[in-house]
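hey so i finally got around to running the thing on that chain from the lab meeting. sorry it took forever, my laptop kept dying and i had to restart like 3 times. anyway pasting the input first so we r on the same page abt which one it is
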Amino acid sequence: MARKKDNDGVLATIERLTGKVPCPMYLRSALNKYLYQEQLFEGATAGNTHGRRKQLGQLRGPDTDNLVRNLLDLDALFSGETTTVIDVVTGAIDANILNERLNDVEQSMQQRLDIYRYWLDRISSVRSVLADAHLNLKVDRLDERLLAARNTEIPTIAPFALHALQVQEASETKARTGLPSASEFVSRADAYLALDDLVNADRNACSAIAQDAACARGWFIRVAIALRRRQSAMRTFHRKRMEAQEFAESLSGHERWANEQADESANDAWEHQQSLDAILPQAILHWPQNAGRCEYGDLWKQVRNVFVGRMFAIAVHDVQRAGSREQWAHLNGLELEWELEHRKQPYASSSGLTGSSSFTAEETRAITRLLAVYDDKPQQFFDIIEGSRVSTDFQLYHLRFALRMEGCDAHWAKLQAAVATSPLASQADNLMRDPTVAKLWQAHYCRHSHPAALVQSYAKWLRETQAQSNGRLRHAALQQYAHLFHHQFVRRQFGLCGEVAAEALTLFEGATALTGWFGWQPHPYDDSISMPLHQCRYWEYLAAVAAVEQRRKSEPLSAQAQAILDDESRWREAFSEQTKCFWTTSMEYEEGCGEDWPEPPYGIDLREQESWAKEAQLVPHK
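ok and heres what got predicted. didnt touch it at all, straight out
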């Protein structure tokens, strides 16, 4: 004879509350998740690793029915999220978090309602269209033939939204019987993503990763959402900034409002960038693969480029991560540049080789994986027509160098081949526009080739682009020459310094200055110093500095150097015009004021006779 149900048992309680016999099993499974929670039911025990057994709580007491009703209602409302329901019932959830969750639930319900209303309003049309004998579903589009029967104000929905919603609801239904698996969380995240519900898509992707840290699809969804959010914020920023500048009246309330909106969007973009940076390494390490190739090729390249750019920025700008400025310079191959600046401003905190890396272990693993893919299949790593190929390739090479990984020589050879076959305009955009990239490109080039070859490459580039640019690229070339002069100066290669200055002087074509641009440019490694690159006299000064130092080092003198030294008195007088040949150093104070003063380049004042003396003076060396 079968055992009778207890009046206060699970089955009897649910049957009494629902009026349905037999008890709906999905409600029984949902309630069972909470019956082991001792903070909810008397006598319940969740069990633990110390041998404590699990035990169901008792469904007794005057308020038990209400508690059961509330648990089942909230379980449905929060899609089976047991922890959230328990926190709500016990009052442990923060009010702001609860409000955010309810907003998400409301948005999700509205979205579901819109999808069902969209199809419900077209059911009669579906019925008549499918009854049409002339319809060919192998050729004709069903959705284009459907007409709204009643409500034409129902918003449009995403393609295949009903399918995504059904997948989502099936996953949620299964979740109510227990904690979903990582794959089930991913299915739900995919469905939310298809419905453009980024909040719930991200939440479910995070849940999948919490269950499986190597969940490739979970990391993919998270990085795709982060990119979409950042791009949306940036689009809003540009739109509002344009509205303020182009459409709003000056000093109007409209202009102020648009600028405020733009600022808010910029802050949002920055926050989304921070979120993106946090997940990029794991996204790289766990990118979905198919037969050894990365899936979603276009998005993979975008994520790869963003990650490489971020790591490059850390390597070349984040001194704090390296532990000291000297360690930072060592990692980037700029030891001699640091030594010169340290002699000028010997801050103790900036010195010392800490042995630290600029990257976390996770970031290093991701960089290593990218380099392994690059080395294994270099032809597939970049598209031939990829506009930023040279820039990304160079940044990746520098990361290899900064981490002192094997394969630098082979990587450099591939990079050089890519540069040689790239359009001239692309070379300028990728290797000359950004001063940091330009300096490091020169440093690496000079490690592998003779610096004179780099000077000639700039001259060739300028000759071949002159007709296209009408001479405007001379200014860009002067910046490169200024960086290269400094690179050679700190390495005591004064003969090459003279060659660089001579090449720069040819760009003036007899003029005393290049006009039509803001000529003062920052020093390569000291932002407080500005250099008058647009003045011909400045380059004559650098040529004289090179000649003087060349003689002090007892190097063979070039014809240019000898001519300068033979005409010392004339040049000393010519260099009296400080504004044309001296650096300008600026200092800002906490009070808000500042001060500017002239400073002779490299501390060598060629107005003074003793500066031309043959005796050696302190020039940095290693």
